[in-house]
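Could you join me in thinking about how sequence relates to backbone shape in a protein? To get us started, please write out a protein record for me. Would you write everything just below, so we can both look at the same thing?
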Amino acid sequence: MTVLVSGATGSVGGAVFRRLSEQGGDVRGGTRRPDTAGLPDGTAVAFDLGDPATLGPALDGVQRVFLYAATDELGPFLDAARAAGAPHVVLLSSSSVVGENAASNPIAQHHQHLEDAITNSGLPHTFLRPGYFASNALRWARSVRANRSVSLAYPEAVLDPTHELDIADVAVAALTEDGLIGRAPVLTGPANLTQRQQVETIGSALGEPVDLDELTPDAARDQMAQALPLAIVDTLLRLLADAVGRNSELTDETSRVTPHAPSRTGPASTSPTSPDGATLLPPRTQWHPTQARHHWSDYDLNRSSRNPDLTADLGDRQQGSGTRPELVDDEDYPSEDPGEADWTLLTGDHCAWKVERYPRNTRR
């Protein structure tokens, strides 16, 4: 069986690609730029939903597809998929489609449009509906590194962050088995956690306080609008406001579908080397130190939302809602001496943070 993984250089798609490769499967990594994707020889194929000419060759002989779609236009893909023999499509969707106020939520509307298009196409399908991504906490990395502080609105908003590797494991199950065909599992983390608790966990793992500066909604809106469209910013702030003091409903889909409980995102036993009882799990998606410095020191989020060339260059690095830097995998950027790498993996109860350990107020 041949599987095509779109977004194969992204945080979820990349993990799906690696999992399938580790299992010895025949897997193709779909990407806009196969020549620079850094995938194993012979596995990268051109795949761009905005370029119909790439779709037929990428889908030829494929029986299963993992689909991440940043566009609303799936017509050419669906036509090419039917012509290729109607493969089973596993779509990375969003739990927002079954959330409150989905009809007025642009994130939900985007994913619902994709789901409807695939359903109406007649292709066999599975819709994965994760909620809040654990890696969203990476947006705090720059300020944590620079001055051990985080500025945010609604610190008491309760979230259920889901680790991307848990999502990837469910995707792999859907791509290699038949039990999820026709289903749309909602994926959550195993526990609720406020934004304040996430920041406190980062400080605990660092062994020093991380200050939390509570922003007004207007100030947070101005800050977030530097990187995201205003419609998305307003939606996210509304969701955070609604989540204050309100636990979300948790599901057991990850542990039910995959052979492990969601230990990557759930409470783990305390590492004897972790400060103040913080949980430091073994490195999974690691940052090469030089690449990490590039993303969080030199990378300009303002330009990413306004410069078409830079946004296009991000390509498959867009996962979830909005544009953000890609997690850089250690397989692509190996450190000659991992023991001396200038990074620290910080993991909370069920969130993963990756920040470099620099002295307070040091900028690079």
Remarks:
- The longest strand covers residues 26-31.
- DSSP finds 13 helices and 13 strands in the chain.
- The mean pLDDT is 76.
